Amino acid sequence: MSGRAMWSGVRAVCFDMGGTLVRPEVVATTGQVAEVLGISLEEARALMGKGAKRCLVTPQGLAHDLAASFSRPELAAPLTEVLERARRRAEHPQLYPDVPDMLATLRVRGFALYAMTNALGSSVPDQEPAVFRELLDGVFYSARTGAIKPEPEAFAAVEQASGMRPEELLHVGDSVGADVRGAAAAGWHTAWVDRHHTTAPLMAATTTLRLHSLNTFPLLLPTRAAARTITSEVAG
After folding, report:
1. Which domains does the chain have, with CATH numbers?
2. Does the pLDDT of residue 236 top 50, yes or no?
3. What is the DSSP string of 1-31?
4. Apex CA 31: angle with CA 25 and CA 151, to 5°?
5. Which residues, in sequence order, are CB contacts of 55 under 8 Å at separation 6+?
6. What would the pLDDT profile of 105-125 be if each residue is shown by its tens digit?
7. For the whole model, what pTM was predicted?
8. Which of 62, 75, 111, 161 has its CA 20 to 30 A from that of 197?
9. Residue 183, C-beta contacts closer than 8 angstroms, at least 6 positions apart
10. Residue 203 pLDDT > 60, yes or no?
11. 76 CB contacts (<8 Å, ≥6 apart)?
């Protein structure tokens, strides 16, 4: 099935950020936190998913909370350094080379463009970076919505803010679990960005496309965003 046929009714595209639009660090922030705390990456992810990714917090505040939770106050300083560095990267995101022209092309075609991320609350910038203000209609941070992908509430936040139905939305991301399965469960169209050419299978019985870059992504979409179909309602 062609991308055009699959996505003929799409009016908006929502992208994951780290690993999809933005180059991540070699070792992700959560991995660096795990190293400082001396815990596994899986333990750190679970820990961050409970609170740090669901509310806004300063790097210093999160560092002290984490150090205190492990009864290791001496770790507050190295944790603060890790989290402040992540905040600076979020304030000045490094986009992949294939991203700016791709977004500009979709904007000209009339698509609404969004991004959604499970970023730590300590990494959410006070002011949206200029590049996102220029290329996107909005960014949805889990620390502001209170929901992390693949939870349905994360995708519902985009639907509510955009005023669009699930079938009008396409989500593009690099995580099979958080992005592809989460969006598919919400009734969205999906695309998987596999920049590293992994050998793992995507998922069974799926219409999700695997993309190795975003260079050709606009070719898969209609030349214009789908027009909104207005349905009349009888007032009660």
Report:
1. 3-22+95-220 (3.40.50.1000), 29-91 (no CATH)
2. no
3. --HHHHTTT--EEEEESBTTTBPPPSS-HHH
4. 95
5. 121, 143, 146
6. 999 999 999 999 999 999 999
7. 0.91
8. 111
9. 149, 150, 155, 169, 171, 173, 189, 190
10. no
11. 63, 64, 67
